[in-house]
Design brief:
The protein has two domains: about 45-165, no CATH class; about 180-304, no CATH class. The protein is built from three helices and 16 strands. It has helices at about 1-35, 100-105, 130-135; strands at about 50-60, 65-70, 75-80, 85-95, 110-115, 120-125, 150-160, 165, 175, 180-195, 195-215, 220-235, 240-255, 260-265, 275-280, 285-300. It has a 16-stranded mixed β-sheet that branches. A hairpin with a 3-residue loop joins strand 5 and strand 6 (about 120-125). The longest helix is centred in the N-terminal third of the chain and has 35 residues, at about 1-35. It is globular. The model is unreliable at about 1-40 (pLDDT under 50).
Length: about 300
């Protein structure tokens, strides 16, 4: 009997010790995990200061003059015709930096210059994106400021009959009522062109293009619009006259809801979802639209 009591006592002791061990692990576990959990002593980066400055310039530009604009890597471009024989340039320059002294250093390089010949105005954006310019302007420019975000939004008014060469980066582009030879290229853009004549060649890598033609007959040589990736919309006035070629190079489709656009030679080149050769009205100036990957929609002009 005493032996049985000793066995029972030993089992009770072992159970008590085992239970105590489990209890100590359970109580110490969260503390250990709290002690092992790494602490983040790094303070979050301070928000960047923002400074926006507006610069306005005016230059004389006669009938049939030429404008060349090299825009900023980021920022919008808006160009419209007006009845003056001069060009008005308004630019909103937005800079971001951690300190006021950094903003002042950036303001000394992120800007634009104007060069004028007899009847040709060149507007060139300068800034941290142009290493060659930086070497000339400020050899000791701090490297830590090179990657800070900045942009310039241009608003330009030109005589109606002005030839233009526009180089855009990333941002919206709007051109209205200019009837010259227009050459446009952009990287990533939401481009809107409201035009009635001229000679247009526009190329955008990705984004969207909206071409509005509010007149029945194009007053110019023709139009060629190319979009590598995205959506292109073409809005034509009622009873418009033109010869139109549209194509999708890789993936996508053509959607034609302009009822008076009919195939030119349906027996030779029947329209498909990726190719269309049509004639609107009595025909006229050649219009060519090309999309690499995306959708091309031809529809009636909506006067909004």
């Amino acid at each position: 009997m005493s032996k049985l009591l000793r066995i029972s006592s030993n089992q009770t002791l072992r159970f008590f010790l085992f239970f105590s061990l489990l209890l100590s692990i359970a109580l110490d576990g969260p503390a250990q995990s709290r002690r092992k959990q790494p602490t983040n002593d790094t303070a979050p980066p301070a928000p960047l200061l923002v400074r926006t400055a507006t610069r306005t310039e005016t230059r004389r530009l006669g009938y049939g003059g030429t404008l060349t604009l090299t825009g900023a890597p980021s920022g919008s471009i808006t160009i419209e015709a007006w009845p003056q024989n001069e060009i008005e340039i308004t630019a909103d320059i937005e800079l971001r930096a951690a300190r006021e002294e950094d903003l002042m250093r950036l303001a000394s390089v992120n800007n634009f210059v104007i060069v004028q010949d007899t009847n040709h105005i060149r507007i060139t954006t300068t800034g941290t994106h142009d290493r060659r310019f930086l070497r000339r302007a400020d050899k000791n420019f701090p490297k830590e400021l090179l990657g800070l975000p900045w942009k310039i939004d241009y608003r330009i008014r030109v005589p109606a009959f002005t030839d233009m060469e526009i180089h855009g980066g990333r941002g919206a582009i709007n051109i209205t009522n200019v009837e010259g030879a227009i050459r446009l290229d952009a990287g990533e853009s939401q481009t809107t062109l409201t035009l009635a004549g001229g000679d247009l060649l526009a190329t955008v890598e990705r984004g969207s293009i909206l071409l509005r033609v509010p007149v029945r007959s194009w007053r110019g040589r023709g139009v060629e619009v190319r979009l590598a990736q995205g959506q292109m919309d073409v809005e034509l006035a009622p009873n418009f006259n033109a010869d139109i070629t549209a194509s999708i190079l890789r993936t996508g489709r053509i959607e034609n809801s302009y009822s008076s656009l009919l195939p030119r030679e349906p027996e030779l080149t029947p329209p498909t979802e990726r190719n269309l050769q049509g004639r609107a009205g009595a025909g006229g100036a050649p219009f060519s639209f090309t999309v690499g990957d995306g959708t091309l929609r031809i529809k009636p002009f909506e006067n909004k």
